[in-house]
Predict the 3D structure of the following.
Amino acid sequence: MILKSLFLPPSSSCKLFFSNDPLKIVKAKGQYMYDENGRQYLDCINNVAHVGHCHPDVVKAAYEQNQLLNTNSRYLHDNLVDYADRLSKTLPEKLCIFYFLNSGSEANDLALRLARQYTKHEDVIVLDHAYHGHLTSLIDISPYKFRNLEGQKEWVHVAPVPDTYRGLYREDHEDSVTAYADEVKNIIEHAHRKGRKIAAFFVESLPSVGGQIIPPAGYFQKVAGHVHKAGGVFIADEIQVGFGRVGKHFWAFQLQGEDFIPDIVTMGKPIGNGHPLACVATTKEIAAAFAATGVEYFNTFGGNPVSCATGLAVLDVIEKEHLQAHATEVGNFLMKLLKDQQIKHPIIGDVRGCGLFIGVDLIKDQVERTPATAEAEDLIKRLKEKCILLSTDGPGRNVLKFKPPMCFNMEDAKFLVETIDKILTDMEKECLNH
Amino acid sequence: MILKSLFLPPSSSCKLFFSNDPLKIVKAKGQYMYDENGRQYLDCINNVAHVGHCHPDVVKAAYEQNQLLNTNSRYLHDNLVDYADRLSKTLPEKLCIFYFLNSGSEANDLALRLARQYTKHEDVIVLDHAYHGHLTSLIDISPYKFRNLEGQKEWVHVAPVPDTYRGLYREDHEDSVTAYADEVKNIIEHAHRKGRKIAAFFVESLPSVGGQIIPPAGYFQKVAGHVHKAGGVFIADEIQVGFGRVGKHFWAFQLQGEDFIPDIVTMGKPIGNGHPLACVATTKEIAAAFAATGVEYFNTFGGNPVSCATGLAVLDVIEKEHLQAHATEVGNFLMKLLKDQQIKHPIIGDVRGCGLFIGVDLIKDQVERTPATAEAEDLIKRLKEKCILLSTDGPGRNVLKFKPPMCFNMEDAKFLVETIDKILTDMEKECLNH
């Protein structure tokens, strides 16, 4: 989306990157973008162009299907069956029902409907700073948004982010997993005392807007225990982090351990390499409860043959180009380079991540870990001058977030970290000279 | 969307056409679809494949842009500006701000947010039997859906459909326009007495699921008067009926007269000829109130260069192939042929429409106008055997709805009506023989 006025300057409803000096990008290929002067930029941000900008296999699949047929799902079509089949092979057996939609927001809205229909409960527990989408129902469950708008609905409960670097319980806590899960348990008990009932615990498998957080392994299992006991379901939002980005696993929730299976998984962004496509996967039981209302769910564009062909092509490329293994290899290398920088530059407080999902937490001081917000913004601006596109996240907007197209390689990682090193060195010198 | 299970038969959450004997369509071109045996079907239903299935110009535009760049709207791009510019030329000058999204449902949800943010009111007035989308917020304002689910929210008010054939005030009423508009006025007054405030009157410019209804001209103006007086806005949902389908005008709300301008217009289905694309157009004032919250609106896929290229190509084809004039010509011809049938077959109670949006209301008797539901279903089934795809709508599921791709031609109209004539004649004979 963009808000585009013909009579006004671009409105503030949509934030451009580098809004004071925005980029006009006209072309992209792999992990590179090109402006109208042919200047090449290394893209470290775009997790939507998952298998690389304009990947020829994905483009070709869409083109071929577009020439043949693109209609709604009122008719049978092999692509739909094939795609659901392929996706099911990446997931635990229990998650065997698929709904196809056009955006992560549509997916999260449907997940909410499924949870409520199945549990007959209304309330939702989310993590602080979470963002789950731009729809009315999702702003309600996104503290990142509702804190700045009309405020918190009575059916929404906010749990602390399981952030062991700057959260409530940190790396020095003897059992942060239990401590964070107990926070959810307390919320449930508090809600029950007020006569409220929990429909769902809604969480990004790796909180992104929250600051590129890696929840400690075992946390989801403990939370799921409490939530299931309360009659609720566990919804894993994989919109930002799914499809092999974390390297070791295809889905980020799998980082928690093999014994953890969510009740609902939502997918978006990378699923179609930019084509508007999304998916909700769930269990037979939840789907049956939804169907039992007798009210049909119809989505005009969702699951059309072109969308499915595109989704299938993305899965093919991930497999054919071994992008999951590649994400592990390059991600580990990048993490190592960044950790080397951490020793050299005191502004780097924490380097965390998995595969090609990495966060670098910039701080003003080691004790308070005060977010180095202005410094982060300055760094991003200087990186852009060096033709590297990076951005920040987290409530303090001080966490550098790396989530590049999956074809990002060792050379790119070296170039990126060398450039960061140079800029941080410059910034340190300038600081001393002031 | 479809719900696809690999271990269960297709679930009941998504209704297939002819679910007892569904079609497997593998190819489509223009107004024709082809099953896996190469059998050709005349498509009288698909208003999404607006300029014809797989139109080569639209397919080419998407392909070319897909090879070049497909990214989010964090960067400047000419397609976005060009597309907003082109759309603005089809609309009254006042509607000059555009938001791009991925589905009609996303558009209607945003329209609701805009209305509420601008008016600071909560309540919404909708027409009975209306359907505005599959999202949580839209099921709440869709009587077609919520009647079968948890029921009506306290902030939703339902006005009678301005249907002069089987509604509250009919063709014999001396002033049905005022009578129907007064119903809205009464709802507003009743809401005010309860201390509630109206954010919007939300209406399809031509109610579709409601039974292919053509509201009498002047109704929107009168309603808008009442709604504006109450501090609310008028939202015209053009998702089913926009983009020249009604022939005479580009937008269906324009059938009400030149003096009527909605505050918000939503667009979907035909806008991208099947590509997931949608749009909200509104005024500077409403957009400014939305931006003033300071909370950005970002839509990952919305307004990307490929979506805009596709939307532009659709506008080009409508123009180049004179599809609006074509819709008037073929629509008038089809209406005439159907009205001839009305004289011959007493089951045809009403033939109404404009351009290639036509409804044929089937009845059991002339006095009560009892919906001929079973007969309509039977007719649709027999048409399918004759390779014609048609469907029914309306609360009685007795209204044949014609909304074919816009390239539907005179020959198709003749073939369609001749076939309907034969089937109705057969049905009448069978009825006599029983």
